[in-house]
Amino acid sequence: KNLGFTDSQIVENGNRYIVDGDIVFDKNMEVPADNGKPKTEQYYNGYLVTNSSNITVKVDPSITSMRPEIDSAIKQWNNVPNSKIKFSIVTGSTYDILIKVDNTIGSSTCGQAYLSTSNGKAGNTVWINQELIKNNSFAQRQRTIAHEFGHTISFKHTNQSTSIDVPGVGGTDALSMMNGGQCGSGASVLSAKDKQATAALYPL
User: Fold this and answer.
1) Is domain 7-201 classified as CATH 3.40.390.10?
2) What is residue 122's predicted lDDT score, i.e. its pLDDT?
């Protein structure tokens, strides 16, 4: 709750909390101090990824069939103007993020991810409910993956107003890919404000 979430948004799940359906926290994580400023749009958790120009992603064997969707999602983030965010696929045993299938995360949950951490690391796991999204369009399948990658680099849900605001990027944004609760129907490309927020947090 110190991160600004309400009781109704938080579900306990073993050693983790699931918030807003797809954001995962370990129970022992550190909590950032809120700066107390007005919270207006394009939200993040206060923890920026330090190696943001080289975030490595390992594709688990369970999800190799969705490699085209993963590549498309990565391309969206890598092509944000004036931002140093760069994801890349690696095959070795050292990586920042593991993306894998988990069809047990919920009957209406397309994916889940860890948020970035207090020590500057990207959220280290993305889970995709392949069974749930397999009949969605390609655009919507890659949207799910891109959305979850957004969480790993600190972004929270744009339409969830109890978070830390991205400075200078205000107002509502129905076109944001980071809106929550829009599995299978949300924006399939990063909006202008999504890109502004990414460039604001991770400038060149």
Assistant:
1) yes
2) 97
Domain spans of the chain? Answer: 7-201
Listed in sequence order, the residues at least 6 apart from 40 whose beta carbon sits closer than 8 Å to its beta carbon are 165, 170, 171
Q: Which residue has the tokens 């972004």?
A: 155
Buried b (16+ CB within 10 A) or exposed e, 32-63: eeeeeeebebbbbbbbebeebeebbbbbeeeb
For the entire predicted model, the pTM comes to 0.84
pLDDT tens readout for residues 26-69: 656 555 444 333 333 467 878 899 999 999 999 999 999 999 99
Give every CB contact of residue 99 below 8 A, 6+ residues apart in sequence.
Answer: 57, 58, 59, 60, 63, 70, 125, 126, 128, 145, 148
Categorise residue 184: left if φ over 0, alpha if ψ from -120 to 50, beta otherwise: left
**Any idea what DSSP says for residue 44?**
E
Token readout for 173 is: 């944004």
